[in-house]
Amino acid sequence: MTTLLMPAPEPAPRSSAPRMPKGLSDSAALPTAPARALPGFHGAVSEFKRHLLEATLTQSGGNRTRAARALGLQRTYLLRLIREFEIRVPPAAMAPRRGEASARPAQTR
Q1: Judging by beta carbons within 10 Å of its beta carbon (0-12, 13-18, 19+), is residue 88 exposed, middle or buried?
Q2: What is the pLDDT of residues 50-102, one digit of tens each?
Q3: How many beta carbons lie within 10 A of that of residue 67, not counting itself?
Q4: Cα–Cα distance measured from residue 85 to residue 53, given in angstroms and rounded to the nearest whole number
Q5: What is the pLDDT of residue 23?
Q6: What is the CATH number that goes with domain 41-88?
Q7: CA end-to-end span of the chain
Q8: What does the DSSP assignment read for 25-81?
Q9: What does the domain layout of the chain look like in residue ranges?
Q10: Mean pLDDT throughout 26-30?
Q11: How far is CA 52 from the centre of its chain?
Q12: Contact between 81 and 72 (Cβ < 8 Å)
């Protein structure tokens, strides 16, 4: 029976970083930030929804119909979410309706 000899694995390169004393974990030596409670899954989802709604409403100039369309939501559902998250929306700038005179004064030449 023939035995194959494999070369020994090369040792891992040594780090120039100082070694931690025995008994201390790596995380114990790291500076810690003040403890802050994470919002949890549902809290994080709520924060994301609120941020998305606020950003879309800002981008649409406060026009709820345009914001709902951009989000792929029914306007009534968007209004419900705005109430639920207590989002303050400035009144949208009113565009003149078809057939109505423009609110701007007529330009003279």
Answers
A1: exposed
A2: 999 999 999 999 999 999 999 999 999 999 999 999 999 877 766 666 665 55
A3: 24
A4: 9
A5: 59
A6: 1.10.10.60
A7: 107
A8: -HHHHS--PPP----HHHHHHHHHHHHHHHHHHHHTTT-HHHHHHHHT--HHHHHHH
A9: 41-88
A10: 56
A11: 8
A12: no
